[in-house]
Amino acid sequence: MKGFLSILILSTCLVFWSFQDSKQVHFSFNGRAQGTTYLISYYHDNEKVTQNQIDSVLQVIDHSMSLYRSNSLISTINESTQGGELDFHFQQVLKRAFQINKETDGIFDVTVAPLVAVWGFSADKITKLPDSNQIAQILPFVGMENIQLTGSYLKKLKPEVKIDLNGIAQGYTVDVIANFLLANGIKNFLVELGGELRVEGNKPNGEDFKIGIEGPVNSNEVTIKHVAIIKGKALTTSGSYRNYIEYGAEKLPHIINPKTGYPVHSEILSVTVLAKDAISADGYDNALLSMGIKDAFSFLDQHTDLEAYFVYKNEQGSIVDTMTNGFKAILKN
Questions:
Q1: Per-residue pLDDT of the chain in tens (333 residues, 90 and over written 9)
Q2: Is 56 exposed, middle or buried (CB count within 10 Å of its CB: 0-12, 13-18, 19+)?
């Protein structure tokens, strides 16, 4: 879903530019984690944080919540019949997941792992689409009412329940890295992981970090639609136009409705969410896309700590965009 080239970084729906200044040294490094790429860019008079330190942090989180690792904690939990003890990172993410699940009336749900797998969006690919009987057999084990978190212990109420934190873990990881930089005295930085990012401060010469917001123009073309400036905030994007599977002429988006068991069919093609931290933005972006434009704006009216930008198909089939007033305020003229 992501990639980068030189100082221009292209993500699912995000891109930023950063220029070196003579007053402070610009440190930048990149790598891979959680099945995607990351980039850290910061300014300081000396190298306060190294890539090895960042990679160590990422390794700890990967061992906790990465489904790409068969020996990770989440993989162990998924293979268990009763549940198990969680580490600090897993606990923090699951606590926030319960909150977002409640606020979105179950649209956001981390127990969708069996549905993600049966539709071919896991590491194991499929040779045919599931039928209604398969979906009906899985649905009783989907729903966060089937798990309980007591202290550090996660209890499965049904042994078949499996968890997928991919809809929120990357945002959490961005926050962990950002807080690590802040704890080491770094005040001006950009952290990006898999297209999810958080920005603090600005460049030493007073310039702001500029974030390009990408979106589809038609079924084959994507362009930078706006340039935004953020400070002390996070941006994440969920888009159905890139991450999908094709069966014949049909494109199935990667976002699964936990209530129906089927991929979400929404007029929204992408949504970019602005929030105080990346775990919040990441946790709500898929849910907002799933809601559709009307319900998404109703939800945002009730959650004034979130702002959002949407690219969607109108009733005439044209691709258009819209945004909240708060999101409009961060755009560069």
A1: 333 222 233 333 444 444 444 468 999 999 998 888 999 999 999 999 999 999 999 999 999 999 988 999 999 999 999 999 999 999 999 999 999 999 999 999 999 999 999 998 877 777 788 999 999 999 999 999 999 999 999 999 999 999 999 999 999 999 999 999 999 999 999 999 998 999 999 988 888 999 999 877 766 677 788 999 999 999 999 887 666 666 666 677 789 999 999 999 889 999 999 999 999 999 999 999 999 999 999 999 999 999 999 999 999 989 999 999 999 999 986
A2: exposed
- Sign of the Cα torsion 162, 168, 174, 180 reads negative
**Terminal Cα distance for the chain, rounded:** 28
The dihedral over CA atoms of 255, 260, 265, 271, expressed in degrees to the nearest 10, equals: -40
CB count within 10 Å of CB 78 equals 16
Cα torsion 274, 193, 100, 179: sign: negative
Q: Is the dihedral of CA 32, 216, 126, 122 positive or negative?
A: positive
Per the CB < 8 A criterion, the answer to whether 81 and 156 are in contact is: yes
- Predicted TM-score (pTM) of the model is 0.90
- φ, ψ for residue 172 (rounded to 5)? -60, -45
Give rounded-to-5 percent helix, strand, coil for the chain.
30, 30, 40
DSSP state letters, 68-121: T-TTSHHHHHHH-SSEEE--HHHHHHHHHHHHHHHHTTTSS-TT-HHHHHHTT-
Nearest-CA neighbor of 211 among 225, 229, 223?
A: 229
Long-range contacts of 223-227 (CB under 8 A, 24+ apart): 224/15, 225/311, 225/321, 226/309, 226/331, 226/332, 227/331, 227/332
